[in-house]
Structure formats: C-alpha cells, structure tokens
Predict the structure.
Amino acid sequence: MSEIILSSRDLHLYYGKKEALKGIDLEINKGEITAMIGPSGCGKSTYLRSLNRMNDLIPGVTITGSVMYKGRDIYSPKTDIVELRKEIGMVFQQPNPFPFSIYENVIYGLKLKGETNKQVLDQVVEESLKAASVWEDVKDKLHQSALSLSGGQQQRVCIARVLAVDPKIILLDEPTSALDPVSSGKIENTLLELREKYTMIIVTHNMSQASRISDKTAFFLNGDLIEFEDTKKIFLDPKKKETEDYISGRFG
Amino acid sequence: MLRTQFEEDLLNLHNQFYEMGMLVSKAIHNSVQAYVKHDRRLAEEVIAQDEMINQLEVRLEKKSFEMIALQQPVTTDLRRIITVMKASSDLERMGDHAVSIAKSTIRVKGENRIPEIEKEMKDMSDYVKKMVDNVLIAYVKTDKDDAKLIAKMDDQVNEWYSNIYYQTIEAMKNDSELIVMGTEYINIAQYLERIGDYVTNICEWIVYLATGKISELNSNRDEFF
C-alpha cells in the first residue's frame, strides 16, 4: 500500500576530504513520518539536508550517488532548486521567523512567486496557521511581529510558513530541541495531525520522540545507515546490536 | 492528540481486558453447566473457545509491550498497563481451568453420580462465577474496596472445597463404585478453588492499580490442612 516518494541510492557526501555519508540507500514512504536517530556527528542532519540540496550552500561539499524525487535525480543540473525547496520544505532547530509580522512570514513564499490577490493570501494564511495548530493563538494579532511569540509558537509559525507553499515533503531538523516539553508536545501533536497529507522526515536527538510519533526509524552511525525499520520493530526488537546499544543508552 | 492517541490505546486495552474477562466468565459457567447437565457438546465448545481466550491474552501482551516501549508511560498509566498484563495472565489460567473442568465432563460417562455433592459443586461454581463477574466490575471502576471484599469471598470457596473433599472421600470409602466419579468431583472442586485464587490475584492487582502498592490479600498459610 505504501508508495515511495523520495529515495537515495548510494549517496556519498564529503566535506572536503572527510566522508560524512558512506553510501546511503534509503526509501521514504509517502504520508509517513520517518525519524532519523543517531549520535552526534553520525550524518543524520547531513543526510536530511541532502534531500533538498541545502548542502549546496556549504562550500567544499562533494556529493555522489542520487536522490530520486518524482522520477528524477534532484542533483541533475536541470533541477529547479527553488521549486525543489518549495516541494520539499525545511524546518530548523532554532525557530527562525523573519523579523516581520506573522502574516508576512506566512505569505513570504507566495509573494516571491508573485501572488498578490489578498483573498488568496488571507485564505492561505488562515489554512496554514490552522494546519500548524497555531491559528487560535495568533488570529487576533496577525500583524504583530512574529518575534513577539513564544518559542513554541514561533516554531509553529515556521511550520505554517512551509505549509503555505504547499509542499509534498517536510524536513524537520530537531524541531523541538530548543523547546520545553509542553511546547514540544504541541509540536508533536501538530506533526501527527499533518501525517498522511504530508510526508515528514524528522531528525531527532530525542529517542522517545522518535518512538512516539514516527512510523519508520532510520539509525545512523559514523556516516552509515545501520538499520531502517518500522519504528515498532526498532524499539521492540532491533536487528543490529549497534541499534540496540544506542537505543538502550549503552553508549554515546 | 499525542496524549489522546495514547489514551485511546489505553482505553482499547482496558476494553479488550474486560472482553477477555467476559469470555472467561462464560467459559467457567458453561464448563460447570456441561458437567451438571452431562452435556458433552457444551464441554467440547468450552474447549474450542479457549483458543479465543488465549489469542486475546497474546494480543493484550503484545499491545502492552508496544505501549511501554513506544510511549514510556509512568505512574498511573504504567500501573494500568502492568495490571492488564498481569491480570490477563491470571484470566488465561482461569480459562485453562474451565477447560480442565470440561475435560472432566467428557471423561466420565455413565458413571454413578452423587446428587448431594453435585448440588454443592453447582453452588460453589455459582459463587465462583459471581466472584469473577464482580472482579471485572471492580476492575472497570478501579474499586479497591470492592476488590478487597471480593478477595475475602475466597474464604467461602476454600470452605466449599474442604467440604466437597471430605464428603467425597467418605462416599468413596463407603462405596467403591463411586471412586471414578468421586475423583472427578475432587478434581473439579480443586479447579474451582484455583479459579477463586486467581480472582484474588486480580483483586491484588486492582489494589495495586488504585494505590501503587503491591499487597497480598488472602494468604494461603492458614488454609485448609
């Protein structure tokens, strides 16, 4: 029943001479939440950034292998990178709303595309903020600065900003690491509600978070993908000893 | 919704446990009915239905492991899951004893019966069924006071067992034709007595669920012999 929406084949990445990804084969199913776990420096964030070519922005990076999306390798020179990053959006660890109003933040991508119809913009703002579970909090102050919000609310506005341009896949790089448990819980709820409509890939240090919300979990170690399984199987009965050791906190 | 999903899972666990309890209660009732009415077909049905009870226990266990591994519950949530895990194991044993009673029925045919003792056994089994039904209600309400009362009912069950045991031994001493039947009476009374003990176990888990304390409600020390 599951359809593959994104996949990498033998993906290698080098920061200069250092090999950070050692040939990753991975297939992401549509509509699922895939978690990526592993100790610091294992390559999970590097891998995540490879999925929408954010690593292009880092000097000295070499990539071999392929990342297939919609039947094409995103690393092909013919790829429209702006379009790619609209379809595969990203949410970062530190909430990073622009220093504008909440409204302006959410419509930013649309305005860049040339949308000016106020009704369309208003509607998109409302829908996106609702989908990000923050509409009730901010509906009466849409024109206040986004920076006036709490960390958790800012992060949800960032999610709304990604949702506003109608992505297919959302990449989240430790989206709740900078937040307190209650705000993290709200974000986790939001992600669960976005399931099925969107595909999400989330890098997290927090293994309980991975176990709570993800359908599949990928365990990275030293640039290798050690195990990739249904989350239930990983947390109840992992195949590899390294996975079991990491999950039970036996090292790192 | 994260919390809600967990709460929904917890509620499902709770409901499935109750469903399993109802099946076990029915099995116990049917197994004694089958014995008293000499109904071999009903006895066979009890044996066949045990498969369903066993499957429910496995399902409850699997779901409990999953919820513990994936959600890391603490305090009341954890106690609830542990109670279901432990008490469903007790229910499954009770179901096995119902099967043993059913097998007794199939074993004895055309043997001499002792109506007075069979009446005692019917009364004892009605009482045990009441304990089972009450403990399921106490579980649903997490009623620790009811649980303690139900555990006390086990004293009566033990007394019944003691009576049936001695009466049957007397009858067998006086008439060796009654030995085959008498042995089954003692077996069945023993199964019923064990069912009472398992119900007491479940009462202890209900008290644990309500208070967080693991306690012994009916010690076997001064029993019977």
Remarks:
- Chain B has one domain: 2-211.
